[in-house]
Write a structure and sequence with these properties.
Order of helices and strands: HHHHHHHHHHHHHHHEE
Strand content: under 5%
Shape: globular
Radius of gyration: 21 Å
Number of helices: 15
Distance between the termini: 40 Å
Strand order of the largest sheet: 1-2
Largest sheet: 2 strands, antiparallel
Structural class: mainly alpha
Number of strands: 2
Amino acid sequence: MISNPIFGILTDAGYSRKKLLFFGIVSWSLSTVGTYFSTNYTGLFVSRSFVGVGEACFSVIGPSLLGDFFMETERTVIFMIYNIAMPFGAALGFLLGGWIGEMTTWRIAFLICGFPGILLSFCVYFISEPEIGRYDNGSSNDITLLESCKLLFTNKPMLVLLGATVCFTFSAGGLADWLVPFFHRKFGTNIKYAGLLVGIITVIGGIGGTIIGGVLANIMKLRMRNALFGVSCIGVVASVPFIAISLFVPSENTSLILILVGQLLFWWSSGPTDAIVANVVHISARAKAYALYHVANHLLGDSISPIIIGAVNDKVNDISLSLLITPVVLAISGIFWGYGWIFLPKQSLVTSRNEETEEFVVYGESSENSLFD
């Protein structure tokens, strides 16, 4: 969370994104390799902390760079593919890391998993970096840092998006941390087996939901106003009853199926999210917008939801009731998505600043209230 704003400011200030990305990937990979050499808790803590620096770099600069490689009409599909890579990579890491660790030692697992990133970082270094705002109106250096920050906090689509994604991340993070104890306590499932089951349905839900949401948003963008908000709203709202009912059914298998369906639905919002940021934020503040997005989601979302659920569970001593917080907050996320779908101006896109009035111009606004075109 500390590194996100730093990379956002550096990127919007005009520093080479591919060089910053190269630094982030190398930092990420070397810190993973460095875990092999850790001999105490301090060494392990430091090496794992620098993984966060690399992740912060990639999460801010990656979408910003992709946004300039592709036009607005292509971004939904591109960000869908980009977001698929994360759950796929996580699953691959768990499988390979576990297999290598079991065959050798956990140290060797970190050593082997870290080196591919170092090799891939050179692929990033030698790419041809696109001009910032290549497919958008306006220049990348026409506003100050203060102006760009003001622009972010007065950008209504961005604020609505933050409300939706913070609530979504709160619920997703709470479920990720507490589903294994839920199955263990409610159904007596072995913890190791429960972890495997939860991991499988999370990966399937994350990859499948991201693909479905991205494809639907891309299909519906010519038929539905604010399709990125609309598709996300439908998926998140539809997931709420499945997640809620899964917490109280008497059958473990039924609960697993309901949670899987719920995850397939609420991950619809994954692909459209990055595309929305790229489409509605002025190019001079776009990287800072991604930084704000990640800081807000972690600070107000998945970093506090497991603690809150645990505190509630200590009071009520009922894990099903405690986890009921997650579908409730998902419903609130759906309200934000719905507001963006129905009430935000159609195709609102901040593109440039009027040189005479010093005000930002928003193109493509429409007062039409129909949900479908």
